[in-house]
Amino acid sequence: MNFYRKYLVIFSLPILAVICLHLLLFYINLGVPNNVTHGYNDIFQVKDNYAHSINKPKIVFASGSNTRFGVDTTRIEHTLKIPVVNYGISANLKYYILQRVKLHLHNGDIIILPLEYSFYDYQHIPVDANYAHYIIGSNISNFKALPSSVKLSIISQITTGELLKATYRHIKPSPYVKSKYCLNINGDVTNNFVSKKTPANVLFSKLNDSVFKNAPVTADAQEELTSFIDYCHANNITIYAAWPNYLWKEKEFKGKDLDGIHAIEKFYHDHNVEILGNYTDCLYDAELFYDSEYHLNEEGKRIHTDYLINLLKDKLPQR
Questions:
Q1: Measured between alpha carbons, how far is 67 from 88 in angstroms, rounded to an integer?
Q2: Could you give the CA distance from residue 81 to residue 108 in angstroms, rounded to a whole number?
Q3: Phi, psi angles (nearest 5°) of residue 208
Q4: Can you give the residue ranges of every domain in the chain?
Q5: What is the pLDDT of residues 147-203, one digit of tens each?
Q6: Angstrom distance (rounded) from CA 31 to CA 173
Q7: Pairing, β 295-296 against β 84-88
Q8: In whole angstroms, what is the distance from residue 66 CA to residue 295 CA?
């Protein structure tokens, strides 16, 4: 019996040591900005600054990067004569984007959500790796505010090796390189040139077999969206849903993916939120995309922006 107990102790000690090392490294890195945090904060800073500078009713587009690349909010602003903010960040951050944009929404504003499809099949656990890295490197209060299950998922999502590398970079930091994507004052990407677009065959090769991983709208997604919608309704903020610009193999979805679209439509209908346009209108040809199925190039952005302007003209009072 003593032999087995000794064997168990010998076997357990290295595991406990690794766990303790992992937790120690996590604690050391908590609240210390890393490359992921710096990258997203560069984007947030541009969008936060412009949104904060506006002291009258405005339109805000909020989603992942499909809006950042695919909507020319500067042109919408000039055409419709109302301030417009491009609050497209990255779908990796999911509903943190909506939590953050709340800080800039006020009575009389309009919020438009062209959310990527991954928002609708979202599940709290496991967390996205990029989100985990962002949260660990952002304000400690962001991490403390999370449910315990999400905290544990973040701790386990980042490997000990990654934490060791991050700790080393704190000791011997290298010069920080800003994002290669240029943003204008409104928050639009401005260097998604047609001449630098990814070939169509490469883009198609990266597409998944289906649009949705889980049947939308998941319980976690419903919880997040309902909370945000209720906030907007309670604070006299007009909210519209919209479809993301997207590259797909066909001109429409089929089977479970089409069922997913119908589920999204039903969700918004049940929550008194109007959806602008039709999802098929936003399935564009491959030559209009830049470097992913959600990133339009400058010509695609022009076409998609024209589409949005036509939809919004009827929704705004005459100016």
A1: 5
A2: 15
A3: -75, 170
A4: 33-128+177-313
A5: 999 999 999 989 999 999 888 887 877 776 666 679 999 999 999 888 899 999 999
A6: 16
A7: unpaired
A8: 5
Per the omega criterion (within 30 degrees of 0), is the bond before 14 cis?
no
Residue 73 corresponds to which tokens in the numbers above?
Answer: 């909010």
Residue type, 303: I
In sequence order, the β-bridge partners of residue 61 are 86, 112
Instruction: State the sign of the Cα–Cα–Cα–Cα dihedral 193, 34, 67, 211.
Output: positive
pTM of the model: 0.91
Q: Beta 84-88 vs 59-63: how paired, if at all? A: parallel
Structural tokens at position 147: 């449910």
Give the orientation angle of helix 73-80 with respect to helix 298-313, to 10 degrees: 30
- Quote the tokens at residue 36: 């992921």
Measured CA to CA, the distance from residue 182 to residue 185 in angstroms comes to 10
Neighbours of 111 (CB within 10 A): 25
**Residue whose pair of structure tokens reads 């089929």 in the numeric block:** 254
User: What residue spans of 180-254 are helical by DSSP H?
Assistant: 200-205, 219-234
Query: Would you call 223 exposed, middle or buried from its count of C-beta atoms within 10 A (0-12, 13-18, 19+)?
Result: middle
* SS3 (DSSP) at 308: helix
36-91 per-position pLDDT tens digit: 888 999 999 999 999 999 999 999 999 999 999 999 999 999 999 999 999 999 99
3-class DSSP assignment, residue 202: helix
For 33-128+177-313, give the CATH class.
Answer: alpha beta
Strand partners, 275: 241
Q: What is the DSSP letter of 207?
A: -
The single residue listed with the structure tokens 């969700």 is 267
Residues 6+ apart with CB under 8 A from 228: 95, 98, 102, 239
**DSSP code, position 121:** T
